[in-house]
Sequence to fold (345 residues):
Amino acid sequence: MPFRDVIGQERAIRFLHRALMTGRVAHAYLFSGPAGVGKRAAALAFAQALNCDMKQRSVDSCQLTAAQDGCGVCRACRNIANGLHPDVQVIEPDGATVKIEQIRTLEADAALVPYEAQWKVFILNSAERMTEQAANALLKTLEEPARGTMFILLTGTVSALLPTIVSRCQIVTFSPLPHGQIEALLREKGMESSRARLIALLSRGSIERAFCPEVASLPATRDLLLEGVGRGLQDGPAALVELAEKLAKDREKLQQQLEILSAWLRDLMVAKASGRTDWLVNDDRGEAITRQAEGVPLDAILDGLRAVHAAMDNLVRNANPRLSTEDLLLRLREALPSGLLAVSI
Ligand SMILES: [Zn+2]
Fold:
């Protein structure tokens, strides 16, 4: 997909456009940002803009119009989009890591002239998962880049990469998409609005998450979670420790569960403060929320919300998920009236 089809990320794309327009294209880029926000799509679009047949034709005929974007329809653009272009490769981790053999193969390939394109582009996904040997090998390649060769490293965590690699790359930052933009997209695809609002909020700014097939079961996941946490908060500390262990097993899922709790408590606050149900994220559960909000003071909801947000911060800071979840559940137990969340979900 060309740049014009990449959703959001205007700042990152403007930066890449400028490089194309001025002809000052670097040999190595580091696209940094959370998963599922368009880094890979933008990298492929960049490769298209560099290698689009239409652009080459206009250069050949001395019309030096800089291609800001691939046409998306010529053979080169289509092959790049479909992963069939011999000069544009996407390298994925082999199992848990990107291995030195993969970097060696890439190195050997990078030393050859392009088959048919102007630029050979190597897109390295999850670059932070390179082994130390792989990273050192790549560093050597980055130190002496061959003409017409470009590396685009994609990562969610710049800090996990060797500083020497980072310093050789132009960093382009990708941000989570605003909830409103994702909600609008889901609605454009025909999703009804309350569901679109809930999913947009729970997707944490990631298009990929918003459109993944599991999204269909989100309301059921939410109901199960609230019931489980509600019941857990009524039980003793031993049960809470067990519940924390269960919730924290999968880090990615835990983040989603914290978003669900945060959205629910936020709704309790809205219902408590305004008495309105049309402003709720979970407006399919307006009745339950109104009933729960009646039985809990505003301060208690705020304390609960603070506890959830503290747990989210902890996860971002790479804290132990199980301990953070235990701490969260204990705080919720202290803040919220017994059995609150378990009430008639
Ligand atoms: Zn094209």
Summary: Confidence is low (pLDDT under 50) at residues 59-66. Residues 174 and 304 are 31 Å apart (CA to CA). Strands lie at 28-32, 88-91, 120-124, 149-155, 170-173.
